[in-house]
Amino acid sequence: MQEIGEILKAKREEKGLSLADIEQATKIRTRYLEAIEEGDLSAIPGMVYARGFIKSYAEFLGLDGQALLEQYRTDSHEEVSREKQEIEPAKTVTNTPPGLKKSNLWTQLAMGIGVVGIMMIVYMAVVHHSSAKPSPSQPQEATTQQKEEKGESASPSESAPKTDAEKTKTEEKQTPLEPVSKSSGNSFYKVKGENITVQVTAPRGANWMQVVADGKIIASETLQKGDSRTYSAGSQLDLITGNSPAIDVTVNGQPVALEQVLGRYEFHFRAE
């Protein structure tokens, strides 16, 4: 990892850029950039973000970010293999005194008897509860007949089936919104309506993201697991994520089919 950091630092200095310049362009904090260049990723919250930062940093400098990530994976695998070969845990053998073995045997036997006794008590309680249940109420037909005799009738709103328009609207909400086109690292969606409202939740883990509404950055933050955010725009909204498998997205109340990517990916929504 230190070799990759040296490559990035050398390329940055070759271009005459400071860490502040890199932070402004990529939105990656300076302390994370320093950690990458020094080869110490302990300051970065999670390997998903570390890989995403390395790739974004490298591509901004004009390097092949994917190739550097592959090199990082190879170096990490070799280092872990060496550590496993060098460190072998010593096997210890504990001799248990004969008296202690007998004590453990009696303890286990007593616990087993206790468990069986508890199971018998629970079983008897269940049987008693089942036998004490009251008889079922009269059939529903009798209740219906009584209502008819009293002149009661079901209201039309309760018995009327859903119209075709209501069914279509329900199906649209349940059907995920699919992209109309895709390109490298991008998915494009058409949204029905004059405005766009996007809700992002993170039920499966943390996710860094940036939100651009009508050409203006309105958010750049990290959602922790369980967080939820809502953003609105007029005619276009762009959502840039760092860990799309961790999030769920809805647009105008309709779930969105997301490309599952560990790393930077952009989702573009346009109102029709």
Report on the structure:
Helix 1 (2-14) packs across helix 3 (30-38) and helix 4 (47-60) crosses helix 5. The chain contains nine helices and ten strands. The two termini are 47 Å apart. Among the domains are: 2-86, lambda repressor-like DNA-binding domains (434 Repressor (Amino-terminal Domain), Orthogonal Bundle), CATH 1.10.260; 175-271, no CATH class. Helix content is 46%, strand content 22%. The protein is of the alpha+beta class and 272 residues long. Strand 8 (248-251) and strand 9 form a beta hairpin. 19% of the residues are buried. The strands form two sheets. A six-stranded mixed beta sheet has the order 1-2-10-7-4-5. A four-stranded antiparallel beta sheet has the order 6-3-8-9. The radius of gyration is 31 Å and the shape is flat. The chain crosses the membrane at residues 105-126.
> How many H/I helical runs?
9
Q: What's the alpha carbon Rg, rounded to whole Å? A: 31 Å
Q: Could you state the order of secondary-structure elements as H and E?
A: HHHHHHHHHEEEEEEEEEE
Task: Name the structural class.
Answer: alpha+beta
Strand order of the largest sheet: 1-2-10-7-4-5
Note the beta-strand portion.
15-25%
Question: What fraction, in percent, of the residue positions are helical?
Answer: 40-55%
The general outline is: flat
User: What are the segments in which pLDDT stays under 50 over at least 5 consecutive residues?
Assistant: 86-93, 134-139, 151-159
Question: What is the mean predicted local confidence, pLDDT?
Answer: 79
User: What's the main sheet like?
Assistant: 6 strands, mixed
Quick one: how many beta strands? 10
In angstroms, what separates the terminal alpha carbons?
47 Å
